[in-house]
Design a protein that fits this description.
Growth Hormone, Chain: A; mainly alpha; globular
Amino acid sequence: MFKTNLNAMPRNVWILGVAALLTDLSSEMIHSVLPIFLVLALGASTVTVGLIEGVAESVASIMKLFSGALSDWLGTRKTLVVAGYGLSTIVKPLFALAYSPAVVLMARTADRLGKGVRGAPRDALVADSVGPEMRGAAFGLRQSLDTTGAFLGPAVALVLMLVTHCNYRLIFWCAVIPAVIAVLLLAAGVQEKKSTRDDGIRSPLRWRSLKTLGRQFWILVVAALLFNLGNSSDAFLLLRARQLGVPTELVPLTMVVMNITYMFSAYPAGVLSDRVGRFGLLLGGFIVYGIVYAGFAVVSTTWAVWILFAIYGLYLGMSQGVLLALVSDQVPAQQRGTAFGFINLASGLTLLPSSLLAGVLWAQISPVAPFAIGSFFAFASVAFLLLFFKDKTAPAQAD
């Protein structure tokens, strides 16, 4: 089953996946050590870490809304995809040059701004390239390739940390190389299909246009908003790992473990969603998240940390690509960019307050508190979906 889908997968999906692999390799080389760099090398507090991560990711998610809508209005996705990857690449040297948390904030925000520009148009381009009977597999493959880079990034960072005795700046410089290759690959390799623009839609963000996205789509947006109220930055997972006894130089390895299970579960989960439907898998992923965050709140041993990171990767594999495919199923093709923009906006609007809240709870109450809150909101979002979402697309059917 998996082999057949891979052989039939369009070229665009492969190129977008490999570019995502290279970019995530670059980004995770930086991100896996950045919280430790901020705290130990630059003297930042956990509240500052939360502020930096929250601002950066919120900017990215807000930008996804406008770039997704713009790609619908223009009827083209590739230009925005290349521009977004290019912006993230240009600003990466700033991490190596940073001597204050303010410079890291600027670099991280610009990097995530590039992610925001490319995110929704890229996902819409994946959806445009396949029919609904392969949509879960396509998003699952892209997520698996993406996560291969996310797996390799912390692994490379770990090796460099050990060899260079925690030379953070050298790691940041090395991260620029794969990012440049990704931009060149996208510019030369992606071939866009004919325009998806609907001339009857004057603006994708007008109220009349937004209503055509449908009730089920907006229920998914509200569920994502509710879920992400407790989904603070992964920086707090890394800090929690260090607090529970993981040596500083091995902290990046926790992300490697997480991404191994993410990498190997995303494509099978996508294929399974094409066969049996997406909604149950998405609910299962949210439940796994709630259990993992509850685990981070109560465990006290180092070995349990490694198990929780592995299970956290399973949550990502079960939910990330499946949610994108489920959104694609709910909306018209010419509005996919806008739809992906809104689903990402729901995440971004909550990440800043949730990350700030996590930092304050960590510092003022207990390191346990952010994870207890995260678990609560995960189960609340599951209850909301069970009450209000009516799945009419399981299993997916061809157009």
